[in-house]
Amino acid sequence: MERPSLEINLPDAHEEGKLYVVDSLNNLNKLNVCPDESQHALDEEENTGGTGENTAGSNIRNQCLFFVTFILTLIISLALVSFVIFLIIQTRNKMDQISRRLIAEKKTIEELKKMNNMILKHLNQSGIKE
């Protein structure tokens, strides 16, 4: 009797089963080792054939984003430093004005003291006593 063709196809089916098991183990290992985002990136890399085109575009995009963020940070820092310098200058001008006023008031007080002393001397000399 002839052997059925099923017996001949069994080794091929056995090989396909081995490949399926290995592929399933690889997928399970990816799920356990890589987080979801990394798994998504790995799946995309497998879909692109592993050429790395996606990662190169992602790296350029990340570098541009970093550069733009860096430039914006520098501009904001420059604006803040300029504002602080402006506030320091304004405060210094106000302090100068206040010190000038205090000096003027001190001179006025000294003049009033001199006038008071002169009046007291004049009153003492004229002999008017209370």
TrEMBL record:
<feature type="transmembrane region" description="Helical">
    <location>
        <begin position="65"/>
        <end position="89"/>
    </location>
</feature>
<dbReference type="Pfam" id="PF15145">
    <property type="entry name" value="DUF4577"/>
</dbReference>
<dbReference type="InterPro" id="IPR028099">
    <property type="entry name" value="DUF4577"/>
</dbReference>
<keyword id="KW-0812">Transmembrane</keyword>
<feature type="region of interest" description="Disordered">
    <location>
        <begin position="37"/>
        <end position="56"/>
    </location>
</feature>
<keyword id="KW-1133">Transmembrane helix</keyword>
<protein>
    <submittedName>
        <fullName>LSME1 protein</fullName>
    </submittedName>
</protein>
<keyword id="KW-0472">Membrane</keyword>
